[in-house]
Amino acid sequence: GHLVALVMWPGHDFHWYRKGRNGKWSHKMGDKPATNLDNNGNLIDDPRTANRGSYSDFCTFMVVKQGHIKIK
Fold it and tell me: What is the three-class DSSP state of 11?
């Protein structure tokens, strides 16, 4: 499975980060390409401490197990 993190822009939106095999986190904003950089251009070691811009509320970490959810 994958370790993911959920953050919130209070009253507006939510956003997910996913931890890669290299230990770094990545995310994808809308139609932009996926990236492993935060808003300061730094590699994301921990989504709790990364510059997330307006996504100020860190909510939780979760494990998503492969094969348990199918999105069509």
Answer: coil
Q: Find the angle CA(65)-CA(39)-CA(55) to the nearest 5 degrees.
A: 60
Percentage helix, strand, coil for the chain under 3-state DSSP, each rounded to 5: 0, 40, 60
The maximal CA–CA distance of the chain, rounded, in angstroms, is 35
> Rounded distance, CA 15 to CA 17, Å?
7
Per-residue tens of pLDDT for the chain, all 72 residues: 899 999 999 999 999 999 999 999 999 998 999 999 999 999 999 999 999 999 999 999 999 887 766 666
Integer Cα distance of 61 and 37 in angstroms = 19
